[in-house]
């Protein structure tokens, strides 16, 4: 008996439970598996049907039961185990709350939905060998079943009066039409045929046939959305109301927020930033009525990069320079983290740039993605701060460092357990850090940075304001005393942004379709700043920014409930 006990595996602690969850999740969600670099995932797609979603929920419930037992074991209350356990419990409960409210039965948005996940995963798959391309073909052939499951979930939502917003549906219909190559001026082959065309000639028949199946699946989904789903949701509310908003803000931010306080904070930041923007605008275009008049002047008269290939190379150079100048001074970076690639986003993407995390083995590096929206000339004033956000020292340094320390934390904390507001807050903090360090070298770049900050403050105002139908304050320069609507939100955002009209439209659709996500940038930045300030007070003159940054970036994911306390203690 004693020999058997000695050879039995130790009962799992929370970090082991978290990583066991990741293994099980990959089986159910091969898209997550590909992002993690699991080869067995590459030719598969998830089950998006109601049954598939219930399987995911069952995994969450079983893991929560295992976690409770793991925390009670000796060693389960250490700082490392405690931190992981808190994150895992909070994330799984947030995901279950979203599931149990039926939100996945109306998952239509212009940026985050099953059909976007399906297309997006092809851009990060390995594509160096014939075997890689055989996996691409297998995944394309899996699309009809996967999208049938997605359609079944939406149909279930219709039957239960769980409707997506009409504007989400019309926007996605436009995106799918573009992916099919049926939009005006588009490549008639369609996106999947174009993508398959990059594969080896030896697999031409297999790839072309698979691309045709994928294209057919997209067309059938598009036609069903147009002919069945769109009429079914006609007249549905675009905003979600307080109860659904609280559910989603917990999911995206890892905290039960005081939404009225956050709304007031957004307005405070709006007024502060507006004053700073006016100062910088006067340097660029003296006498300009608004800062955005100066930004419009920069669109045609400011520094710019001409050409799509040229801007990709320019952005790569910007990140390489940032790494060279920051490493050893404000960060201590491994060789793996120093590698990041600049890419151009595929046609039909939303308007906002984005970042994809490296695989766990770094065989796929971190990548930034620029949607060109058909443009060939790119003003520099907003690209500089945006790539400090998306690349270095923003998303790339945080998420690549998480990947680098995954073996010391858990794979869960450094990958699928990511809290959006933590990551977006760090990226916005990174923009501010580069301003503090003097990297924004002229009025053009500073005005672009302030405009980006203003966009994030405006997001807090309009996202909370329109979903909760709050009153616009009496001291507002815009419709004081009225209550927010999507139409007012779009007008306000357009008036206080240097972005073109199509970007503003895409952003508003995003806020309506992903309630509570957009506020995490500014609220997350506030949490990072509060944590740094507390650490500075605690250490006084001994505070070392490089050490603090690396310790902070090695914590793994945290919700905003925990982030300030953990950062303050470093």
SSE layout:
Blueprint: H1 2-7, H2 14-28, H3 30-36, H4 50-71, H5 79-100, H6 114-122, H7 130-141, H8 143-159, H9 166-179, H10 191-196, H11 204-233, H12 241-253, H13 259-284, H14 291-301, E1 304-306, H15 308-326, E2 340-344, E3 354-356, E4 366-370, E5 377-379, H16 380-390, H17 395-404, H18 411-414, H19 420-436, H20 443-468, H21 486-495, H22 501-513, H23 520-539, H24 545-553, H25 560-568
Parallel strand pairs: 2-4
Antiparallel strand pairs: 1-5, 3-4
Protein name: DUF885 domain-containing protein
InterPro entries: DUF885
Q: Could you walk me through the main structural features you see in this protein, from its secondary elements to its overall organization?
A:
- The protein is mostly helical and 570 residues long.
- Among the domains are: 1-101, no CATH class; 248-521, no CATH class.
- 63% of the residues lie in helices and 3% in strands.
- It contains 25 helices and five strands.
- The chain has helices at 2-7, 14-28, 30-36, 50-71, 79-100, 114-122, 130-141, 143-159, 166-179, 191-196, 204-233, 241-253, 259-284, 291-301, 308-326, 380-390, 395-404, 411-414, 420-436, 443-468, 486-495, 501-513, 520-539, 545-553, 560-568, and strands at 304-306, 340-344, 354-356, 366-370, 377-379.
- Strands 2-4-3 form a three-stranded mixed sheet. Strands 1-5 form a two-stranded antiparallel sheet.
- Helix 9 packs antiparallel against helix 11 and helix 16 (380-390) packs across helix 20.
- The protein is globular, with a radius of gyration of 24 Å.
- The two termini are 46 Å apart.
- The model has no long low-confidence stretch (mean pLDDT 95).
């Amino acid at each position: 008996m004693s020999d058997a006990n000695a050879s039995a595996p130790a009962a799992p602690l929370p970090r082991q439970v978290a990583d066991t969850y990741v293994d099980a999740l990959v089986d159910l969600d091969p898209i997550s598996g590909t992002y993690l670099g699991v080869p067995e995932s590459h030719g598969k797609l998830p089950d998006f049907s109601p049954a598939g979603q219930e399987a995911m929920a069952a995994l969450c419930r079983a893991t929560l039961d295992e976690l409770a037992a793991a925390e009670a074991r000796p060693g389960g209350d250490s700082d490392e185990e405690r931190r992981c356990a808190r994150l895992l419990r909070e994330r799984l409960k947030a995901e279950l709350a979203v599931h149990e409210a039926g939100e996945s039965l109306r998952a239509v948005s212009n940026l985050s939905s099953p059909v976007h996940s399906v297309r997006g995963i092809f851009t990060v798959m390995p594509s160096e060998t014939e075997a890689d391309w055989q996996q691409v073909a297998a995944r394309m052939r899996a699309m009809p079943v996967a999208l049938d499951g997605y359609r079944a979930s939406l149909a279930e939502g219709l039957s239960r009066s769980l409707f997506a917003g009409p504007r989400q549906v019309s926007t996605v219909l436009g995106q799918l039409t573009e992916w099919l190559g049926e939009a005006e001026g588009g490549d008639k082959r369609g996106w999947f045929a174009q993508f398959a065309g990059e594969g080896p000639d030896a697999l031409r028949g297999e790839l072309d046939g698979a691309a045709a199946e994928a294209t057919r699946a997209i067309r059938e989904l598009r036609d069903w959305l147009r002919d069945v789903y769109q009429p079914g949701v006609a007249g549905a509310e675009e905003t979600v109301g307080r109860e659904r908003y609280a559910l989603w803000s917990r999911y995206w931010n890892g905290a039960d927020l005081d939404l009225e306080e956050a709304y007031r904070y957004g307005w405070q930041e709006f007024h502060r930033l507006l004053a700073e923007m006016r100062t910088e605008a006067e340097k660029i275009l003296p006498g300009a009525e608004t800062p955005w008049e100066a930004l419009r002047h920069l669109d045609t008269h400011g520094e710019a990069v001409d050409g799509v290939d040229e801007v990709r190379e320019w952005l790569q150079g910007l990140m390489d320079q940032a790494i060279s100048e920051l490493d050893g001074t404000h960060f201590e970076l491994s060789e793996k983290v120093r590698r990041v690639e600049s890419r151009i986003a595929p046609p039909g993407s939303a308007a906002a740039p984005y970042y994809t995390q490296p695989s766990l083995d770094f065989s796929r590096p971190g990548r930034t993605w620029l949607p060109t929206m058909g443009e060939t000339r790119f003003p520099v004033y907003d690209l500089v701060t945006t790539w400090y956000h998306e690349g270095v020292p923003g998303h790339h340094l945080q998420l690549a460092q998480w990947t680098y320390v995954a073996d010391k934390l858990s794979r869960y904390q450094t990958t699928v357990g990511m809290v959006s507001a933590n990551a977006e807050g760090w990226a916005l903090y990174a923009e501010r850090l580069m301003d503090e360090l003097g990297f924004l070298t002229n009025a053009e770049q500073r005005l672009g940075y302030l405009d980006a900050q203003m966009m994030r403050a405006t997001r807090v105002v309009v996202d909370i304001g329109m979903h909760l139908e709050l009153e616009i304050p009496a001291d507002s320069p815009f419709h004081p005393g009225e209550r927010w609507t999507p139409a007012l939100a779009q007008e306000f955002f357009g008036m206080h942004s240097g972005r073109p009209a199509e970007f503003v439209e895409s952003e508003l659709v995003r806020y309506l379709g992903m309630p509570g996500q957009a506020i995490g940038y500014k609220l997350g930045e506030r949490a990072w700043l509060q944590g740094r300030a507390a650490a500075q007070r605690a250490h006084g003159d001994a505070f070392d920014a490089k050490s603090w940054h690396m310790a902070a970036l090695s914590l793994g994911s945290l919700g905003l409930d925990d982030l300030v306390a953990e950062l303050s203690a470093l």
